Amino acid sequence: MRTIPTLYQGEKIDAHAHIGEFGGWANLECSADELLNSMKLYNVSKTVLYYADNELVRKAVSEHPDKLVGCVWPDPRSPDARALVRRAIKEWGFKGIKLHPLFNAFLPNDEIVYPLMEEARAAKVPVLIHSGHPPFSLPWSIGELAENFRDVTIVMLHMGHGNGIYIESALNVARRYDNIYLETSGVAMHTKIKEALERVGEDRVMYGSDIPFHDPLVEIGKVCANDLPARLLERVFYTNVKEVMRI
Ligand SMILES: [Zn+2]
């Protein structure tokens, strides 16, 4: 008889978390201390961190360089976006670029994104893109960008998020473009995590919590509900994030 799966206790790297305030409908906030406490609780040795206020992230990363990994979050419509990205990678030691097409209202494959993709290519850092909400952040649109930048690694955050059709399309788009990786936070169907490992690849799916939007208890549990073998748990929770982020 099947027993209740336990949460994976091994060392983890979280590919997706935020500190700061998300007001309005979200009504959420998280401090650096709260994040660090949560990491201790769930045996997360490193967390990849991003927030629209890049200075807040810069400060937290500089205070905890062994635990926090910064990604820069530019608004591609801003004339300073490219300079910000360059400064964050070269001077602050940030390891990736986060794009939020819904939050900043642009299509992933819009030409305003291209200079940032060129920076990612030059610096050999991944571009992490929110997915799952129409009209700006659907998996097919992220696929268009991946097709135009085959040599840039793209992490599709939420792997389609809350809608089964989008989640299925995230898997299909990632199968088509081997520069797309999938991140598990907020995804509504735990079964699709296992399916992604089988259909997209064992090295192409990574754990993220999206703190404070989701709790590690739920997000770790969602991966573990699939009864994956130890080899795949280590891949999802640790090795794949480490390899893609080059940390
Ligand atoms: Zn997020």
Can you summarize the main beta sheet? 8 strands, parallel
What is the helix fraction of residues, given as a range?
A: 40-55%
Bulk shape: globular
Query: Got a strand count?
Result: 10
Low-confidence stretches: none
Strand-and-helix sequence, N→C? EEEHEHEHEHHEHEHEHEHH
Q: What is the oligomer described by this structure?
A: single chain
Order of adjacent strands in the largest pleated sheet: 1-4-5-6-7-8-9-10
Tell me, rounded to a whole number, the average pLDDT.
97
Give the radius of gyration: 17 Å
N-to-C terminal Cα separation, in Å? 40 Å
As a percent range, the share of strand residues is 15-25%
- Summing up helix and strand content along with how strands pair, one would put the structural category as alpha/beta
Count of separate DSSP helical elements: 10
Small molecules bound: zinc ion
